[in-house]
Amino acid sequence: MEAPQKLYLLDYGAGNVRSLVNAVEKLGHTITHIDTVEDFARADKIIFPGVGAFGYAMQALRNKGFVEPLLAYIASGRPLMGICVGMQVLFEGSDESPDEPGLGVFEGRVERIDSSTKTVPHMGWNAAHVVGAHTTQGPDMGGDRRYYFVHSYAVPYTACGRQQKFVHTATRYGDEVVVSSAWQKNVFATQFHPEKSGAAGLSALQSFIERDLVRSSDLVEISAPATIEAALTKRVIACLDVRANDQGDLVVTKGDQYDVRENSEAGGDVRNLGKPVDLAKRYFEEGADEITFLNITSFRNMPFADTPMLDVLRQASRCIFVPLTIGGGVRDITDPDGQHVWPAVEVAGEYFRSGADKVSIGSDAVYAAETYWQRVADGVPPTDGTTAIEQIASRYGQQAVVISVDPRRVYVRSPSDAPSHHVIATSTPGPQGEAFCWYQCTVKGGREPRDIDVRQLVTACEALGAGEVLLNCMDRDGTNSGYETDLVADTKAAVTIPVIASSGAGRVEHFSDIIDRTDVDAVLAAGIFHRREVPIADVKRHMAEHGIPTRTVE
């Protein structure tokens, strides 16, 4: 009887590797973490995932003494699979960390994606086009399938030089074409995340684990970059507001303009629309491109390590293979005993280790933006590395930080009535016929208004390192009247990072309308999905019928 292969995971502290472990186990295999240099000699195959910064990854490998053992492992001919930054460090270097050399397995450098012509990070579901025919069976990839990408740096695909020796697939993002997977001899690597790419990603991962992926020859001819077609889809995100009800059970709820009780004046029960993991699994199976959990209970009476949301993430990541975002409580936390203090970056790290891919920051993003603009006014550098946004982005990457904005309209008769704020013409006139408004940010779940507008908030947070904006609107929440088009369009024009439209969707036409009018990167809904008033499949079918690229479920 043949001994089972020894599959190992090379983790340098990259964040969410739990999802990769869960994906491997979903495929019926087990995987062991590399803890020591000696583990490299024990491995038959190694998977090397990575997120965050190129330099951080290389420094972590060097600090652990893993660089030489990893290169020796590759030279031995045993299979290696790199994922995302785990692919990038296999190249010679990166513009992200110019002074930090890469491993040099593949020829070329990683370059910054051009944000002057498109949103950066490249975030969402895109195709991976196989660039040429192989004489040996390659990874199970390509066709009409879509894979989840999230990165700000990439290797340009030129079809020149030595790229015939290692490029397997290429992907178009706007006016650029990048290497989306590499395959040379015993080394296979993907820029996308197979563990977050649903059935398509699991198939690619399975082909590495269960086949001998050894590329025996170079390609004679590979596709020209101009032939690689655009295929990025618009994301449909399901959002679950999670809180403890009066009996202490975690439930998914939904507010009406942020009020989550059935009859707040009479002290009614918290709306219970289902259990968090059960609903999230249903949305994954129905085709949601991402799932967001927003924790709206503070859990101040228990140590952070015992917070129920950590277990929600652990359970969800076992059965859901699309990106998971967690919001609520991503800030510095002191345990009830007053002894253990969790800095926000460690809170985020615990969420990532539990299965989250991104963290959403709400109130603390507002406070950080206020400080940013005060420093600008004081004539000092506006960033100092102390905010949660900066620290999390530095360790785990820009793509890991979402800012959640809870604004409401403040009507004015003319822009001169609010000289310190960004005022726009509104398509929803005020109660006195006002034709202008500015969008006031709030904190503490919308309960406290602040003297800062959305334009000021999002531009400051982008400068601090945030990678995405989750754009709510208190005036639209629970109304089923459609998204706040004026706000979404204005915010899209203000930043180069992706924007998610939230609040107000009530029928399928609202999704296509906001995309057509604003070119927003993703659309999010909650209550209409929970109550099955508008199924996710209906939204995607409608979008496809209207020419909006969308991911289909295998």
Structural commentary:
It is a single chain. The chain has 554 residues and is an alpha/beta fold. The chain has 17 helices and 28 strands. The strands form six sheets. Strands 2-1-3-4-13-12-11-8 form an eight-stranded mixed sheet. An eight-stranded parallel barrel has the order 14-16-17-20-21-26-27-28, surrounded by nine helices. Strands 22, 23, 24 and 25 form a four-stranded antiparallel sheet that branches. Helix 1 (18-26) runs parallel beside helix 9, helix 8 packs parallel to helix 9 and helix 15 (508-518) packs across helix 17 (536-545). The radius of gyration is 24 Å and the shape is globular.
Question: Secondary structure elements and their pairing?
Answer:
Blueprint: E1 7-9, H1 18-26, E2 32-33, H2 39-42, E3 45-50, H3 54-63, H4 67-75, E4 80-84, H5 85-88, E5 93-94, E6 109-112, E7 122-126, E8 129-130, E9 147-151, E10 153-154, H6 163-166, E11 167-173, E12 176-184, E13 187-190, H7 198-210, E14 235-244, E15 250-253, H8 276-286, E16 290-295, H9 308-319, E17 324-327, E18 333-334, E19 341-342, H10 344-354, E20 358-361, H11 363-378, H12 388-396, E21 401-405, E22 407-412, E23 424-425, E24 436-443, E25 448-453, H13 454-464, E26 468-471, H14 485-494, E27 499-501, H15 508-518, E28 522-525, H16 527-530, H17 536-545
Parallel strand pairs: 1-2, 1-3, 3-4, 4-13, 5-6, 14-16, 14-28, 16-17, 17-20, 20-21, 21-26, 26-27, 27-28
Antiparallel strand pairs: 6-10, 7-9, 8-11, 11-12, 12-13, 14-15, 18-19, 22-24, 23-24, 24-25
